Amino acid sequence: MEKIIKIAWRNVWRNKLRSLVVITSMVLGLWSGLFTIAMSNGINEQRVKSAIDTYLHHIQIHNPLFEYNLDINSSVEDPLQILKELENNNLVKGFSSRIIISAMASSAHGAEGVRVIGIDSENEKQFSDISKNILKGNYFSNIKSKPALIGQKLADNLKLDIKKKLSFTFVDDKGDLQRIKFKVEGVFKTASSIHDSGNIYVKKEDLNQLLFNNSMIHEVAILCNNIDDSDILKQELQNSFPENKVETWKDISPELGSVQELMVWFFFIFMSIILLALSFGIANIMLMAVLERKRELGMLMSVGLNKTKIFLMILFETIFISFISLPVGIVLSYLMISYYGRAGIDLSIVSQGLESFGMNSMVYTHLPSDYYFKITILTLFVTLVSSLFPARRALKLDPAEAVRSQ
Amino acid sequence: MNVIETKNISKLYKQADLEIRALDNVSVNFKQGEFTAIVGPSGSGKTTFLNSIGGLDSPTKGQVLIDNNDITQLNSNKLIDFRLKNIGFVFQSYNLIPVLTAKENVEFIMLMQGVSNKIRDKRSKELLEAVGLQEHLNRRPNQLSGGQQQRVAVARALASKPKFVLADEPTANLDSSSTSNLLDIMYRLNNDEKMTFIFSTHDQRVIDRAKRIITLEDGKIISDTNIK
Question: ipTM, 2 decimals?
Fold first, then answer.
């Protein structure tokens, strides 16, 4: 076996140019595949993170009727008990209770249907990314009377700017139509232009003054210490407060969760296509090598090298090519992915399109470490399969004929 | 005692609708220590005959007995094993393994036979010395002349201590000095070690040194002469 391995290794370098072309194509194939997946994965992870940090959070609690009609009277049952439970639960990192009103926001230039979200400004600063997303103006610090934070998209639509007034019209909890004026204190911009066009943040106490029942809350948003604990905590809370509806971020926004699951399949399908294309290249090169060495293979069979050893020799040659290509391709990919994972790739040229899908225009590449292991196994498997045809062709040679071939 | 015995071997090839009889009821015996040249015009069946007694090709009918064992009954894996243990081959185009050195080429057969490293090393050096290549142990085939390569091939053929050596036109690609040198070596091995050599050849220089000449024509033996 030692000699077979030695011959196979030296055979790889008999035609250096040819071997280097195959190795280079494998390296480039691995690098381009892994980098593309790291980019897609990075975009998706940022999209999920941005949605979670800004408005989705890990878990939300609502009245079961609230999500259907945003009825102001469909408030969370037992809010004080829930908040007390959350304070004592060690799976919980933080939480925020909110009042949400469906309203018509109007300015001198137009009107838009919006969700007005009443928040505890100090708590929310620690809890969500709203304060970090302020593009213009301030986060509840300068304007004392009824300040509001609006999304950039809404500000553009209603032609609003800092310190401009906008009014909300909504039906209060007694069923009366109310109209109230707020002043724009800040304009925020998140990764999702849809969120920015339909949500306005105000102070919870400003909304409480307008409602008959001033202890009502419509949403309890929760962050877990670990995102993977979301399902466990959801179950606990649902059991404790069955009259409310407890949902994880995947329940609320299933498209985000399913995209994450799809990424695994995307990885395998995309890399399989690349490796399949490469396998044809490898099979072709190895077949050429077999046909060029017919006489030599015929001699080896004549003098007593059995079929298993001939087969292994061809197999080893292919494996050696992948043993060289794999580490180079993976290290190159790792370095590029790590670099762009820190520096980011600026896609601001297509930022509008990305934002409409809730994506940032700066993409930070990221590939979980287990993917490198999976690609190694996949590449070795594909390489082995691609060597079968040339190896089989070698076995079919008639030694008497092959030894006399030119 | 006969080392090789063929009994009425025939070999038929079909090409389109034509039936070509490469060997036609050939019966011949070879004894230990013979130095035989198989001669005849192109297409007379020399190579087919060598392939048949070397187990590279199976005759359509007849028996090939090596030490009284009929090798036509062996399956392909057993034939490979049989060739490894019993036959040394020397080919017209040398057919060395280009990525191995002269010494490694000679060791290769012994390695497949499971011979220990120490014995391999000793015997490969002895054989290369016997063919006058002790100075070129670590050269690869492309660093050797045609004559030197063929001498390595002879050393390789002898490495496994075969019962006999089959050489298919071994001097066809060699100049006269290399041919003479190679024949001297094989002649000496034949005399000293009683090694059986069977050549197919057109080369008069080989025919002149042969101790027995078998002439084939149209797949039949037309003469079998022992040279005194």
Answer: 0.82
